Amino acid sequence: MPKSQNKNHIEAKPVIFWYSDPICPDETVVVSGGGFLKESIIELFYLKDDEEVPEPDNLEFKIKTEEWTSIGPIQRSEHSLKAIIPANWKQGIFACRVRNGKQTSNIVFLNFPDSWWFQGDGGLSAARAGGWLRIMGKSLDFSGKSIVCLRAADGSITKLNPESMTCYNLFLKIPGTLNKGKYEILVHNGYGGSFGYKNIGILNVLDAKVEDKYVLNVLDYGADPLGKKDSTVAIVSCAGKLASLGGGVIFFPRGRYRIDSKHRAHMWLDTPLKVNSGTTLRGESADLVSLWWPDRDEPLPSLIEGGNDFAVENMTIYTQGKHRNIITGENNVRISQVRIRANCFYMCRANGATHHNRGIDEIPGKTGAAIELWGHNNWVSDCDIYHPGLGFRLKNPQGTTVRNNTICAGRMVSIGGADGLIFENNIFQANTLDAGGNDINVYFGITCRHVYYAHNHVSHIYGVDRENLTFDGHGTAYIGKIAEVEGLKVTLKGKPVLGRGERDAMPSIHDATIYIIHGKGIGQYRHLTNYAGNRLEIDKPWDVMPDKESLVSIGAFNGRHLIIGNTGQDTGTLVQLYPPNCECIVAKNQAVRASNINSLSRLGRNERSNFHRVEPSWYNQFLDNHIVVGNGWGGGGTEIDRWIGGETSLNIWGWQLSFSEYTDYSQDSDRPLTEEDLIAILGYNPNPGKSIPLSLFQIVRRHKIDNNSFIRIRGAVSDALVENCIIKDSFKGISIESAIEWEYTPATVGPLDFEPEPAVQNIRPYLSPKLVLLRNNHFHRVENPYSGDKLKNNKKDQSIIILMKGREDMNEKDHQFRVQK
C-alpha cells in the first residue's frame, strides 16, 4: 500500500459507543466502537475533585492535549479495545477517548453518573411534593457522597441529599414546600468536582396528595361483621354512593365479611367485586378485618376487580375452592398491607381428595395470580400472600413499584413488557414440591427494559426449570443485509418474515429492535419507531453507519435491567440472561445451592419451520456476585440435569445450534450450527471458516466463589473479560471451551458437562471463543485453575490472554498458556 494511503488509513476517525463501567484503578476498561486500528491507543484523563458547583459543560474543550495519558491496549480488534486504568490513580471519573494518529474519537466519561430511568410516587419522571423519587442506573454513588439538585425554570436550585444511595440506585424525599412544575435533575456521585454533575432529564413535580374527602362505613349499608350472611350487596351499595360523590373510602371496621358475589338480592348475578375509579377498600387492619369468599361451583376470573385509580388496604382476603386471580387492576392501583390466603385444597386431602365430605377436582396450575396488574404507576407493598399459583403477574408495568412483600406460592412473579419497574425487598418461598421459577419476559410486547430487581430472597424451587430468575420470550423476524440507510430511515434488502403460532415466529415488528450482528457497525442496536414492509425508521442515528455488507437481525429486546443484591437458596439458575439480552448489570447477588448464572446468546436454524433464532447477548456485566455454597442439587447424567443442576457455574455461552422441535429429551434433536447451516439461513457465508458470535462484551469482575463452582466461556463468544475473581475449593476454576456435540441420552455427557474436559471427538473449534482476557484471578485449592480446549490450543491464534500478578495454587501444566506478568 502506498505510504499516503496508509497514512489516511491510520488517521480514520474512531468512534466509541459503549464502555465498561463502573470501574476502579488497576481494572480493565473495555470499549466498543468502530474504526479501531492496530495503531489505535486509548487516552485517559482524571477529572479532579474541585469545588462542587453545578456547571455541567462540554468537557471536550476543557482538556488540553498534553494532559491526556496514553495507554496501549492489551487486546484489540476492529471494534474493541481493552486497556488498564493506571493503578496509582485515585478512584474518580475518567475521561476516555481513542486516538488514531491525529484523529480522536468522541470522549466518554467512565464512572460519570448514568441514569437509565427515574420514577416517583407520581409515576415515570413524576413525583409529588412531599413524596419520593428513585433514580436507577449505574455509577450513581461510590462513597456515600452523592448529591441531587433540582433546577427550576428560573435557575434556582434545590439541593437534596439522598435518603439512601448505592452505585445503582438513589432514593430521595421531595420537599413538601416545592412548587408544582418542571425541574431539571442534576446528579453528582461525589467525583469530578464542578464538572461531575450530570443532567439526567426533567422531573414533573405534582401537587401534594389530597386526603380522601368521603369515608363511608360499610356497616351503615347493612354489611354483617359476623360473617353469617352475605355482605356483597352492602359493599356494592356503598360503592355506588361513593361513585355519585366522586370517590372516597369504603371503611371496614373489625369483622369477618362474607362475600358470595351476588350483586343483587334474590338474583344469581355472579361477578367479581367491582371497585370504581377513585375508591379505596380500607380495613381497620389486616388482623382485625377479613373478606371471605366461600366455595364456588365455578371460579370467578378474579375476586376484586378494578380498572384505574383504586386501592385495597389493611385487610385479609380468604378464599377456598375454585378461584383464579384475587385482585386485578390496570393503572394507578394501590395495594398495601393486604394479607391473601387462597387455597383451592383448603381442608381437603392430597390433591383435593375428599375429607369430611369436602373435596375438589381443581388443578392448582389454573389458579391464576394473587395480584394481576396491567398498566402504569401501580404500587404494591407490605403484603403477605399465600396462593397456589402465581404471586404477581405484571403486564406492561411502567412506573410501578412492588416491594416489601412476603409470598408463598407456586411462583413469585412474571414480569412482561416492562418499562420502568422497581421490584425489591420481597421474600418468596415455594409452597409446592413442584414450584417453578420467575421471569422477566416479552410476552406482553416485543420490548422489555428498565427493571430494578433488587434484594429479593427466593428459596426452595424444585419444579420445572427451577429458575430463581430468568429472561424469556423470543422471536426473529429478519436476518439479512441493508439496502440503504438515510438518516433514521433504513431499507432492508429483504422483507421481514412474520407469523403466528409457530416456534420463534413474530406476529409483528412494532417496537422491535434491529441489531448489527456482523460487519461494519457491529454491536449497535436501535429500536424501531415505524415500519412498512422492508422500510423502517429507528429511534436515533447510527454511531457507525452500516454498509451494504453489514448483517442485521430484527427481533425482540430484553435488556438494560439492574439485577442487584438478590439471594437464591435451593433454587435452579440464580440469574439467567436468556436471549435476547443487552446491557444488563447483575451485581452483588448471592447463590446458596443455586445452580447457574447464565448469559446466553443464540443463533439457530429450526429444521422444521421457516423461522430462525438470531438473539444477541451484548454488553452485560457480572460484578461482585458471590457463590456462598456451590454444591447444589442435580448434575446427573442427562442434559437437563446438567443444565439446571450441580455446581453453580457462571456460563458465558455463545449458543449456536441447528435444532428441531422435540418433546423427548432422549432424542438427539439439536446439533452445533455449521457453515452449511449459515448458508441455508442466509444464502451465503458472511464469515468463511469462522462463526458469527452473538455473545459480545461480557464482563465478569470480582466474582467470588467459596466452593464447588467455576466460570465457563463456551462457544461463539467474543470480547469477554474475567478479572479479579477469587475461586476456592473447586474442581475447576476458569474454563474456555469450544462448542461440543452431545446426545440427549442419560449415558452421555451434557452440554454443560462437569468432566475435566469433553471428549476430543466432540469438540467443534468452528464455534469457539475469541478475544478473551483473563486478568488477576486467584485460586485456592482449585485442581484445574485454567482448563478447556481453547486454552490448550491457544498457541495457534493467541486469542486468549492471561495476565496475573500472582500464581496461587497454579500447577506446572499451566505454563502452556500465554501468561503476561
Provide a concise account of the structure shown.
Helices cover 5% and strands 46% of the residues. With 821 residues, it is mostly beta strands. The strands form 7 sheets. It has a 44-stranded mixed sheet that branches. Strands 41-42-45-44-43-46 form a 6-stranded antiparallel barrel. Strands 3, 4, 7, 8 and 9 form a 5-stranded antiparallel sheet that branches.
List keywords for this structure.
821 residues, mainly beta, 44-stranded mixed β-sheet, six-stranded antiparallel beta barrel, disordered N terminus
Structure commentary:
It contains five helices and 71 strands. It is mainly beta and 821 residues long. It has a 44-stranded mixed sheet that branches. The longest helix has 14 residues. The relative contact order is 0.07.
